[in-house]
Design a protein that fits this description.
With 226 residues, the protein is of the alpha/beta class. Helices cover 34% and strands 22% of the residues. The longest helix has 17 residues. The protein is globular and about 40 Å long. The two termini are 26 Å apart. It binds 6-phosphogluconic acid.
């Protein structure tokens, strides 16, 4: 069951999202706790706000990514690169950033990210918050189709995604998302309205909804403006 919240402005949505991140980051006291953030354009104002107004981080806090394009770390399309200023402002050590090692081959990068998550969960790591973007086609992470999601290996936390167009990807799987205590799919702009409506009406008919189907708590946050 999705809880859909419509915000009057994107600024209000970003303020609420920042508050969730801050609470998760400050309360990472009893063991490793990770927040997953997406790539794309939607999170950019959020990252910029946190970079300008950072909050305290518990030593066991980890920043991680829902997915990554298989491009070099300094490529403009690299999702980790979007968070560099925020990482610096939060004073995150490199051990506190779980990035996809795109310097490896596609399959090796996916295997390494999968193993990193397996190790994190094996040592009692928790995911208090997963922030997911929403494509105009209903995808999230780099999970693009219902068939791809249904075929995702159940015991994998990350997989490679070969694309016919654009960069190949590495993405977390529904199995990893299912470990998140609270999953927030956030979107802004009129172009996302049809998918927000479809998710609210019939979540499993949309890739993002099916990807989050095993998540214990899913919120859909939307602001019509840009
Ligand atoms: C990515 C994302 C992807 C994104 C959606 C929405 O690497 O692109 O993780 O899932 O969240 O494509 O992108 P926008 O926020 O740019 O609309």
């Amino acid at each position: 069951m999705f809880i859909t919240s419509i915000f009057d402005t994107p600024q209000a949505l970003y303020a609420a999202t920042r508050n969730l991140m801050q609470m998760a980051a400050e309360h990472a006291q009893d063991g490793p706790a990770a927040i997953l953030v997406p790539g794309g354009n939607t999170p950019k104002p959020l990252f910029a706000d946190i970079a300008a107004n950072p909050f305290d981080i518990a030593p066991e806090f980890l920043l991680a990514y829902t997915d990554e394009r298989h491009v070099s770390a300094d490529h403009p399309d690299n999702n980790h690169a979007l968070t560099r200023e925020m990482i610096a402002a939060l004073k995150l050590a490199s051990r506190q950033v779980l990035r996809v090692e795109t310097e490896r081959s596609l399959e090796d990068a996916a295997d390494a990210y999968d193993q990193a998550w397996a190790d994190f969960l094996d040592r009692g790591g928790r995911i208090p918050l997963a922030l997911l973007g929403l494509g105009t086609d209903g995808h999230t992470c780099s999970l693009f189709t219902l068939e791809q999601i249904r075929n995702c290996p159940k015991k994998r936390y990350a997989v490679a995604v070969e694309r016919k167009q654009g960069h190949h990807r590495i993405t977390v799987t529904p199995a990893l998302l299912a470990s998140a205590a609270h999953t927030v799919i956030f979107a802004t702009g009129q172009d996302k309205a049809p998918m927000v409506d479809a998710l609210t009406r019939d979540p499993n008919s949309v890739a993002a909804g099916l990807a989050a189907a095993q998540c214990p708590r899913v919120s859909l946050w939307y602001a019509p403006g840009n």
